[in-house]
Amino acid sequence: MHVITTAVLGLLVGSFLNVVVWRVPRGESVVRPPSACPACSRPIRRRDNVPVVSWLLLRGRCRDCSAPISARYPLVEAATAAAFALVAWRLGATWELPAYLWLTGACVALVLIDLDVHRLPDAIVLPSYPVVVWLLVVATLAPSGAAEWGDLARAGAGGAILFAAYFVMAVAYPGGMGFGDVKLAGLLGVGLAWLGWGSLVVGGFAAFLLGGLYSLGLLALRRAGRGTGIPFGPWMVAGGAVGVAVGEPLWRAYLGLLT
């Protein structure tokens, strides 16, 4: 039941993230003014703001001027709902679930913004640090929770380790790694290491593996050159998702092969 409830929450959050993705890179408020049609500037009615359903009922067009509404809006809402549901299924109805839902929502927004403008805005990344840490502290203090202070300490250490690793890479190779990636790395490190060192290692490695394979594919298809800039934020998030989903069992299997 908690998975379904979380998926519905994801639909609502996804609707808000569409606003965030459009306005934050432009330095605009995500609260005011209310959402409006970019073609005719008429405010979006409440009944036309129901995630996914409204777009389908309107057949992808503005009610007032019939201008097309991008399919990206319902896709973001549906993708956020699916991501929330998967996180809820992976973690269960635990005290740390809110921290990972916040992290998931932030990552969805950051991936889309990075794809659009090749930036990872501080306005999303930096406030997520205290929010995620505070929610993990709550999970640690919860009387019926299974978390321990060691989990919180490991999360802090993991965030510092991944932040430092990306910082060194950004300094050593400025053209290949931005400081937005460095800041995101610390945040992802906290979330991954809370689950275990295996999640951190697998998630960190998977980002470079997936990003490298994608780059090789573009080179093979001649859709990019050696100097082509490719946003790395989406691959960091994809790697983090792998770490959360299967990081611990993969790490145990790897250690088993060594021993």
TrEMBL record:
Q: Transmembrane segments in this chain: where?
A: 6-24, 99-117, 124-146, 152-173, 185-212, 232-251
Ordered alphabetically, the record's keywords are: Cell inner membrane, Cell membrane, Hydrolase, Membrane, Methyltransferase, Multifunctional enzyme, Protease, Transferase, Transmembrane, Transmembrane helix
- Where is the major localization of this protein? membrane
Q: Could you tell me the EC number(s) of this protein?
A: 2.1.1.-, 3.4.23.43
Q: Reply yes or no: does the keyword Cell membrane apply.
A: yes
One of its Pfam families is Peptidase_A24
Q: Spell out the InterPro entries in the cross-references.
A: Peptidase_A24A_bac, Prepilin_IV_endopep_pep, Prepilin_pept_A24_N, Prepilin_peptidase/N-MTase
This protein's GO cellular component annotations are: plasma membrane
Reaction catalyzed: Typically cleaves a -Gly-|-Phe- bond to release an N-terminal, basic peptide of 5-8 residues from type IV prepilin, and then N-methylates the new N-terminal amino group, the methyl donor being S-adenosyl-L-methionine
Q: How does it sit in the membrane?
A: Multi-pass membrane protein
Give this protein's Gene Ontology molecular function annotations: aspartic-type endopeptidase activity; methyltransferase activity
- Locate the Prepilin type IV endopeptidase peptidase domain: which residues? 103-216
User: Could you tell me what this protein does?
Assistant: Plays an essential role in type IV pili and type II pseudopili formation by proteolytically removing the leader sequence from substrate proteins and subsequently monomethylating the alpha-amino group of the newly exposed N-terminal phenylalanine.
| Protein known as | Prepilin leader peptidase/N-methyltransferase
